[in-house]
Amino acid sequence: IMNDTMRVMWFVSESDPVRSSWKNVEWRGPKSVHLTSPTTRRPSSVLPYWDVTAPNFLLPDQSASFYFCKIYKIPQLDTKHHITGFTPWLEKDHEGLIEHMVLYSCLGGDEFEAYLSHPGTGCRDPQKPPEWKSCTTPIVTWAAGSNGEHFPDHVGLPISEGEGKATYFMLEIHYDNPALQRVRDNSGLRIYYT
């Protein structure tokens, strides 16, 4: 194994395959991975960041699984910048309540300005503003157990590049609350950019 991109084959089967029977397995495919490289690195302490968090959100005690959504606006950037990574911002003692978080970019413009003061709502709530349905492109995804992701020095996701670039984003947090705890949460994501 070298410190380089390695090509691996994966497959899933209900039983151990016999010699060449792996070719008939339905769930299989190739993947390029760095087997010896760490998946994350620490961000530079000088990089600016943007926090998108649940604003003191009170978890409902009627459902073990709840999806919370809230609209955010990217910080004012006059020139092209790049997202270079992210880390979870998990409130102490709430780590076990959060299954995953996704930051979506929203299509549209100034119509989202009115929702910046909105406290957020259930993502599946029929009363959710209809404009929020245009927030469908995942920009950042995090799942329980991950420390986040920081891109290599030469990689970044362009943001604030002018006309047509996303300015508004929607944070989705999936809470898994089987004990139906009624707690307030401020968890979310810290987005690093150049």
Keywords, please?
43% strand, 194 residues, five-stranded antiparallel beta sheet, 2 domains, mainly beta
Tell me the CATH topology of the largest domain: Jelly Rolls
Helix fraction, binned, reads: under 10%
Structural domain count: 2
Mean pLDDT: 85
Report on the structure:
- The protein is mostly beta strands and 194 residues long.
- It has two domains: 5-34, no CATH class; 49-193, Copper type II, ascorbate-dependent monooxygenase, N-terminal domain (Jelly Rolls, Sandwich), CATH 2.60.120.
- 0% of the residues lie in helices and 43% in strands.
- The protein contains no helices and 14 strands.
- Strands 3, 6, 10, 11 and 14 form a five-stranded antiparallel β-sheet that branches. A five-stranded antiparallel β-sheet has the order 8-5-12-7-9, with no helix packed on it. A two-stranded antiparallel sheet has the order 1-2.
- The radius of gyration is 20 Å and the shape is globular.
In short:
The chain has 2 domains: 5-34, no CATH class; 49-193, Copper type II, ascorbate-dependent monooxygenase, N-terminal domain (Jelly Rolls, Sandwich). It has strands at residues 5-12, 27-34, 49-53, 57-58, 65-73, 81-89, 98-106, 121-122, 135-143, 149-150, 157-159, 168-176, 184-185, 188-193.
Set out the fold topology:
Elements: E1 5-12, E2 27-34, E3 49-53, E4 57-58, E5 65-73, E6 81-89, E7 98-106, E8 121-122, E9 135-143, E10 149-150, E11 157-159, E12 168-176, E13 184-185, E14 188-193
